[in-house]
């Protein structure tokens, strides 16, 4: 009954607003048309954040959810930043961001440069390369879980056919080659402390496979928008292909690359479903979002989960502002 009352109130308010619009001048009409959407968006954003902040400064758990919530101030924040699981997931998240986004930018640039060339079937190849973007992340995670399977996975089957040893992709077994090259000593220590294990490598490979085409699409759009005159002048001056790329193409594409970096950074910070489909929350693969799920949902410590949510929002905001500031400095240079 309460729901019907709320719907009737909303419908009545919209009706009155529509009648109000009929009396608004034509000059002011565009402004008033966006007011309802703005109010809805602000309500759906501001009120949940206020509720989240209130939750983060109170002692809230499954044991007292339906009773009073004692005020603890910054106690939840102090507890969560000392939690060993959260600390480990923070550094694991940074490693994931650096490895996956770095590879996506490099490979996406290379892919875009190839697709920029004229060759037969370029449209079909471009369409096929964009298919990973259209697949749901949870499906991507499930697909790569079967691909990485030790006994009957497609990748290990190829290794076996080539006479190579099968690799334990979905485990926290150490990456011996990296540990040896870096001189880190005990591979187990490198795997558990520095996350140099096959599990994190599997996550990075999966993310790179899905989102490299997205970066390539942005860079390709940037390449198609570049002016022709500087290239013609460079060719007349006898510049080599590498010199043209280094001193002309790359500087002109920097704003596009930074935009791709910003979008991928914000999107990668939200990663959850792909990793969950691969490992189902295994401790050695928990990034910040999975640790948030573990604290707030599995352990049902809602106050600390809310505090971790606020910290993640602050972290994403700071990182995004750093990238935006860098882009603005590039545009002014």
Overview of this protein structure:
- The structure is a single chain.
- With 333 residues, this protein is mainly alpha-helical.
- The chain has a single domain, classed as MetI-like fold (Orthogonal Bundle).
- Helix content is 73%, strand content 0%.
- The protein is built from 17 helices and no strands.
- Helix 12 (198-224) runs antiparallel to helix 15 (273-279) and helix 16 (288-298) runs antiparallel to helix 17.
- The radius of gyration is 25 Å and the shape is globular.
- The N and C termini lie far apart (61 Å).
- The model has no long low-confidence stretch (mean pLDDT 86).
Tell the overall outline: globular
Low-pLDDT stretches: none
Strand content: under 5%
Strand count, sense and barrel status of the largest sheet are:
none
Task: Report helical residue fraction.
Answer: over 70%
Highest CATH level, the class = Mainly Alpha
What's the number of structural domains?
A: 1
CATH architecture field: Orthogonal Bundle
Structural class: mainly alpha
Number of helices: 17
Radius of gyration: 25 Å
SSE succession: HHHHHHHHHHHHHHHHH
According to CATH, the homologous superfamily is: MetI-like
**Cα separation of the termini:** 61 Å
Total count of strands? 0
The whole-number mean of residue pLDDT values reads: 86
CATH topology: MetI-like fold
């Amino acid at each position: 009954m309460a729901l019907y009352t709320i719907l009737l109130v909303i419908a009545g308010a919209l009706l009155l607003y529509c009648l109000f619009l009929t009396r608004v001048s034509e000059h002011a009409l565009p402004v008033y048309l966006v007011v309802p959407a703005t109010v809805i968006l602000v309500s759906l954003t501001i009120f949940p954040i206020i509720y989240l902040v209130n939750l983060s400064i109170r002692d809230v758990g499954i044991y007292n959810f339906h009773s009073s919530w004692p005020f603890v101030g910054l106690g939840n924040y102090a507890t969560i930043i000392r939690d060993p699981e959260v600390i480990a997931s923070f550094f694991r998240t940074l490693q994931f961001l650096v490895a996956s986004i770095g590879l996506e930018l490099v490979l996406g640039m290379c892919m875009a440069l190839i697709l920029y060339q004229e060759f037969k079937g370029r449209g079909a190849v471009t369409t096929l390369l964009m298919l990973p973007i259209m697949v749901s992340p949870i499906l991507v995670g499930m697909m790569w879980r079967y691909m990485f399977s030790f006994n009957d996975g497609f990748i290990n089957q190829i290794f076996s056919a080539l006479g190579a040893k099968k690799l334990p992709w979905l485990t926290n077994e150490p990456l011996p080659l990296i540990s040896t090259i870096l001189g880190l000593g005990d591979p187990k220590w490198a795997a558990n402390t520095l996350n140099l294990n096959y599990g994190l490598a599997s996550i990075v490979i999966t993310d790179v496979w899905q989102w490299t085409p997205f970066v390539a699409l942005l860079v390709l759009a940037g390449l198609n928008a570049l002016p022709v005159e500087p290239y013609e002048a460079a060719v007349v001056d006898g510049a080599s292909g590498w010199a043209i790329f280094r001193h002309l193409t790359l500087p002109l594409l920097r704003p596009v690359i930074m935009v791709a970096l910003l979008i991928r950074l914000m999107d990668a910070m939200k990663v959850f479903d792909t990793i969950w489909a691969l490992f189902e929350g295994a401790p050695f693969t928990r990034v910040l979002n999975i640790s948030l799920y573990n604290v707030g949902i599995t352990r049902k410590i809602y106050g600390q989960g809310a505090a971790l949510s606020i910290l993640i929002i602050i972290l994403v905001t700071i990182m995004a502002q750093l990238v935006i500031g860098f882009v603005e400095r590039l545009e002014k240079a």
